[in-house]
Amino acid sequence: MKKTLILTAISMLISGQVAAKTWVLTSAESGTDKGNWHITSDQLKIKDRDFSIEQKVLHGGKQEGSKILVIRSKDGLTITLSPTRGMNLLKIEGFGTRMGWDSPVKEVVNPAFINLESRNGLGWLEGFNEMMVRCGYEWTGHPVAADGQIYTLHGKAGNTPASQVEVEVADTAPYEIRIRGLVKESTFKKADLQTMTELRYVPGSNSFSLHDVLTNHADYPHDYQIIYHSNFGTPILEEGARFLAPMSSISPFNDYAKAGLKTWQTYAGPTKGFDEMVFNIQPLAEYLRRREAAGQCAERMGVPIIYADETWNITNWLRAVAGRDTPPARCAYCCESRIEAAFAFASQQGFAWVSSSLLYSRYQPHEVIKTAGETLAAQPGAPGFAYRDFRTDWQAGIDRSKAMELYRQPYCGCVYSESDRYQKQLLRCIKG
After folding, report:
1. According to the per-residue pLDDT averaged within each range, which of 142-146, 227-231, 240-244 is highest?
2. What is the rounded CA–CA span in Å between residue 343 and residue 338?
């Protein structure tokens, strides 16, 4: 029977738990360190599952003192994690497939031997060999110097030993295994971010999941960044392999990536001198649902609609909003820029008037939209601005959209509002 290997990464998810046995392998708070450790399904008197969990302390070279945690399931997967390196996933093997890649770095490098600021902030590369690395949390990007300090490549999380490591096995079938690790990024006068990572695996299955909860322990709000840096080689990626995903737009990250834009979906074989090509992908699903709803509404009301699919560029928008990415500055810029685009298109097409459905929303910056429209309309030769406070028809609009069975988006649409939405969901889960 053909089996498929599945990887899912889920951030900030809370779920119920059943009775389980728990072992604390590392605890910085209590000074606990079990070192080499091993448990099997036989020792737990589990008869219908065959698995083991083992922690090893490595020796020799730059891996001296590093730890790995290995889950072995006879009829499932072998999963290897590194508590010393931010609970990164080293590799996954099973069902004839290996998830990982062949890095020139062969050892599980202990962060004690890595200077992240070396090579002009590229020291992170000296330990990079994992299938999945958590990048963050104060910083995730390329090396930069700002605010009197160096922000090194991909941050510190992947080179931070876990302060707490626990293994948990459920007492009842299917005997789910949970491996938790606490990764702290705490600096005086800077960040105090703590992330409880958790890997969940049911022995014998062909899938696992990651469930991470990041908490800001500082007295005040603090920005954070996260990348789940997933890395694959053969047999998943090889010459001719293609990347397929529903998306509304694709754009090159830099000038080097422009050269590969036409063939970006297809992987080449090993190529001497080839540097990484990074592309920005805007998911398609939400945009298509909104586009479809607008089309349905226009058709039923007998109103012609013109789609400007090619004008939206998420990369340019994110760059433009940087530095003003919190309300009300972010929302004001977003609405003003859309009104400007509407006026530009109307002038190009010879339309006499411009208005906006944004004037209907109780959640948008109404006065900002009104002022932007009136200012643009006052320019010589510009179309007029048809202003009305459509918020008076708020409930009527909701009732009509429900009667027409139109999709109503649950959030504003930008990545920031989506983050706020999921944060609210998380808080509801925590409160119970």
Report:
1. 227-231
2. 9
- Rounded to the nearest angstrom, the gap between the alpha carbon of residue 232 and the centroid of all alpha carbons in its chain is 17
Q: With a threshold of 0.85, does the pTM exceed it? A: no
Structure token digits, residue 385: 């601005």
Whole-angstrom distance, CA of residue 258 vs CA of residue 274: 14
DSSP string, 307-349: --GGG--HHHHHHHHTT--STTHHHHHHHHHHHHHHHHHHHHH
Given the candidates 2.70.98.10, 3.40.190.10, 3.90.420.10, 2.40.128.630, the CATH classification of the domain at 6-230 is 2.70.98.10
**Bridge partners of 37?**
55
- The 10 Å CB-count burial string (b at 16+, else e) for 118-149 is eeebbbbbbbbbbbbbbbbbbbbeebeeeeee
What pLDDT is recorded for position 311?
Answer: 67
**For 372, phi and psi rounded to 5 degrees?**
-60, -45
d(CA 208, CA 373): 51
- Model confidence at 265, in pLDDT bands (50, 70, 90)? confident
Q: What is the maximum alpha-carbon separation in the chain?
A: 84
- At 420, which amino acid appears? D
Q: How far apart are CA 13 and CA 212, in angstroms?
A: 7
